[in-house]
């Protein structure tokens, strides 16, 4: 059976990130048939050292190709539906479109993909041509006895996971154990086409790895010393595990061979890639990524999600009610946000009304400060410009004085303060007269 860590990749599309950081090693690239990128990505790299390295080492390997406008339109429309479109750059869209185009070309159509976010099944059945080919038979086999194959896959994965922690001797034993235990969960999983397809239902996917995990651990308490500890010998395995985070827990969930894949570090691009059911690979280890986690802004009042993390006001209702929440996207096309269970909105400062605006305060000399409450307020616009300018400060400026000497205030995160900020205006200040 193909495990994802060894499965050959026919075409790999790469972003500027791995090129700049020089992430790939020769051993990893052995799996890749052809490396693709778009001309826009190459144009993006302006740093002299990176450029020269790119020209000497990467350009001979890379195939530069611009996607067709039709593909760009398809991925553009998809990303509009997921809400990622505003944060995707033209380069991002082109990379995604190229991956889509290659997938369609090499895989004989878009049957493996999803055309709408949250689509339960893949677009179409496995085409006959793919079925008849050698690989197709492997895939068919996996499809036929879906549950079994998947259970086996998971067990193997669980195995692979453990390998990093356990010693090599325990591996073979565990291998036997997992194969015995895989037969147990088989009856619970129906071997239907949908189950084996890349969108199996959540519970079956999660329950399967448990038995293999529990059986081996009980049988090998003797060498538990080496297990679970990060030592210099297994450090890089743990690092690669953490870069791919949760994903590597189930790399073999998807039995399809990898025709076209995308390696990028951009979250919005990763999210759309996963939701389209395109293959997403880690830029460090080229392992398949199944789940990505990030943060997103959510309005506490109207629940609108915003991907632009620089926003301070809700784009729909306009209130300063945006909150940073964690979110995850997985290869089943699901996009989830994770909220705190007992979250309580902070109601401080709501007892008394805001002070009335007074004339003459615009000069800043007045007693009253002008509170920023909405995005289109001229004070806010002015403040955004001021904060932006301050960020561009030259670090080598000989005339620079730290803020503590100039009396210049620094707000947290370098963003304009909204309302009273963290201060509670209804609490009497210590030390007598209010300002
Ligand atoms: Zn809102």
Q: How would you describe what is shown here?
A:
The chain has 435 residues and is an alpha/beta fold. The protein folds into 2 domains: 9-289, 3-Layer(aba) Sandwich (Rossmann fold), CATH 3.40.50.1010; 296-338. It is 38% helix and 11% strand. The protein has helices at 16-21, 26-29, 39-44, 48-58, 69-82, 90-107, 128-132, 134-144, 146-165, 168-182, 193-196, 202-207, 210-219, 235-243, 267-275, 378-391, 403-406; strands at residues 9-14, 32-37, 62-64, 258-263, 279-281, 291-299, 305-306, 322-330, 335-338. Strands 3-2-1-4-5 form a 5-stranded parallel beta sheet. It has a 4-stranded antiparallel beta sheet with strand order 7-6-8-9. Helix 8 (134-144) crosses helix 9 (146-165). The longest helix is centred in the middle third of the chain and has 20 residues, at 146-165. The protein is globular. The relative contact order is 0.11. Residues 299, 301-302, 304, 314, 316-317, 319, 321 line the site of zinc ion.
Short summary:
With 435 residues, this protein is an alpha/beta fold. The protein is built from 17 helices and 9 strands.
Cα(first) to Cα(last) distance is 74 Å
| Tally of domains | 2
Outline the low-pLDDT stretches: 134-224, 244-254
* Estimated helix fraction: 25-40%
Count up the helices: 17
Q: How many DSSP E strands?
A: 9
For the sheet with most strands, the description reads:
5 strands, parallel
CATH architecture label name of the largest domain: 3-Layer(aba) Sandwich
So, the CATH homologous superfamily of the largest domain?
5'-nuclease
Q: Main sheet: which strands, in order across? A: 3-2-1-4-5
On the 0-100 scale, what is the average pLDDT?
70
General shape: globular
Please trace the helix and strand order, writing H or E for each element: EHHEHHEHHHHHHHHHHEHEEEEEHH
Ligands bound to this protein structure: zinc ion
- CATH C-level of the largest domain: Alpha Beta
Radius of gyration: 27 Å
GO molecular function: hydrolase activity; metal ion binding; RNA endonuclease activity
Family: Belongs to the NOB1 family.
Domain Ribonuclease PIN: 12-102
Domain Nin one binding (NOB1) Zn-ribbon-like: 289-360
